[in-house]
Write a structure and sequence with these properties.
The structure is a homodimer of 322-residue chains.
Chain A (H helix, E strand, L loop, with lengths): L1 E5 L2 H13 L5 E5 L5 E3 L2 E3 L1 H10 L17 H8 L10 H15 L4 H11 L5 E4 L6 E6 L2 E4 H7 L8 E5 L10 H7 L2 E4 L9 H5 L3 H7 L4 E4 L2 E2 L2 E2 L4 H7 L6 H8 L5 E5 H6 L4 E2 L2 E6 L6 H17 L14
Parallel strand pairs in A: 1-2, 1-9, 2-5, 9-10, 10-13, 13-15
Antiparallel strand pairs in A: 3-4, 6-7, 6-8, 11-12, 14-15
Chain lengths: 322, 322
Amino acid sequence: MIVVLTGGTGGAKLVQGLALILPPAELTIVVNTGDDLVWWGLHVSPDLDTITYGLSGRLSIERGWGVDGDSFHCREAMGSLGSPVWFQLGDRDLATHLVRTQLMTAGRTLSQATEHITRGLGIGSRVLPMTDSTVETRVMTPQGELSFQEYFVRDRFRPEVSGVRFAGAEQARPAPGVIEAIECAAAVVLAPSNPVTSIGPILAVPGIREALLRTRAPAVAVSPLVGNAAVSGPTGNLMRSQGLPVSLEGIIRCYDDFLDLLLVDSRDALNAAGNELFNVPLHASNIVMKSESEKVELARQTLLAAHAITPRDRTTLKRHEA
Amino acid sequence: MIVVLTGGTGGAKLVQGLALILPPAELTIVVNTGDDLVWWGLHVSPDLDTITYGLSGRLSIERGWGVDGDSFHCREAMGSLGSPVWFQLGDRDLATHLVRTQLMTAGRTLSQATEHITRGLGIGSRVLPMTDSTVETRVMTPQGELSFQEYFVRDRFRPEVSGVRFAGAEQARPAPGVIEAIECAAAVVLAPSNPVTSIGPILAVPGIREALLRTRAPAVAVSPLVGNAAVSGPTGNLMRSQGLPVSLEGIIRCYDDFLDLLLVDSRDALNAAGNELFNVPLHASNIVMKSESEKVELARQTLLAAHAITPRDRTTLKRHEA
């Protein structure tokens, strides 16, 4: 069993690649829910949806979110009624949120709602929210604390970021199956997602980091950076807000207590002295996924690297504190 | 002030006609909510929406419900996720239900939500739900008790009907403004809606019938029948279930304790002996509204008839009990 920890966009591409080469039952995806929001009265889980639409072939490649070819007639009508429309939900996409909200209003958990939705869309792999508790990624900016979507979508990640916190994380519990999946995994893959606000919330759920320290599975991460800049989005600013350098060093610092290998872009590997950094071996590859074949190739490289590596002895590893 | 009591389809046409000849502020519409349902987790008020879309020029004339030219992409996606889709909500239409549900979840009443929606759609007339309480029209059939929409939409009004009840009506209170509107009206118009399940629930809300008995305004009804058959829908079967003849006599029996005049189709007027029936004066007109000009003409006829008539002394009137 391959277990992937992931956020949205970048992670979804690697997950798509993995799904194309693994039997569905061999893949479990643990997804960030720190970006979740209530929008138009509906429970929206952007990262879960991006993964789910990616796995079911519905994801809009153009947008990187939502359903391919979707219309936005409801959104337009919401605007006419004076409702905010900066967060966009397509008409087909709406069905997912309606079903999720209905199930959760009736007392089902986010995990159960996710299972219902993924089954409905014919997805054979397990998609697990990191938690069924409410964990909210909050971004500190000069204009005050913002929800992640206010920062990311409404304000287009323009505000300066002085800090990030995961409200509710301390009381949160991993969703059913998450710990077991990590413990029994053949390999754990950290997708090329933002380490601060995509993978960060997952690691902030008590028990998940501990399971990564405990598991015998190798843990490999795919860098979300190429040439010390994020492939997309506000990763750089968010890393800086944590006192992390926007570089492979910064990525390794986020994971160095359990990471066995980092897949990096070939260009960056050349810059790194030798083929390891802070005792973490590096594996060079093309990590920019623009086509289906690049997704598959990176997925293949990731699995090969994971199978080739012997997990380090974690009892001797110490985490860099930011 | 003209006050109209109405259900959906037929009533919406007369309301459209009245809105075309009256200043918006001179028109108050009291709408049946016995057909309301929770669908896909949303509070849907079919008759309120038909009236609202009719007044804002959005109503689909083809369908008689929903928004003109609407798409049904969300519905299709709901079907893919295994949700029932026999009750159809269009993508633009969904915005109305999302906004209503959000407001009501936040503690606002149906009246307040309706005011928000009608204002958003630029409607100048007052649209009032009959009540902010929950009143459910239940239809007794051989297969058990059905909600109105199960009977009407899902089962296409094919089941035999042995009875109708308005669950919750006894505890219901008229929505704010309903009683005052009737008391202060220049005329009360009963739209050509089904007397059993469209006007019936309104009259079942304690206090509304009493206000109709008390008001000095003339009460005129437009018959929903032509030639002893309903212009549309299951009116005939529902009247029979109440022991009412499907005829002008049956219509009059529903309202005879407060009705001052009945507008009937010219063909039916000829069949009635004299120009009154059970002491209720008849006014012959074309009551089938297929075009905008026919809506306006019937609205004009209705207002003229109402202004010409002197309300009968209601203390001497006795209601026919079915």
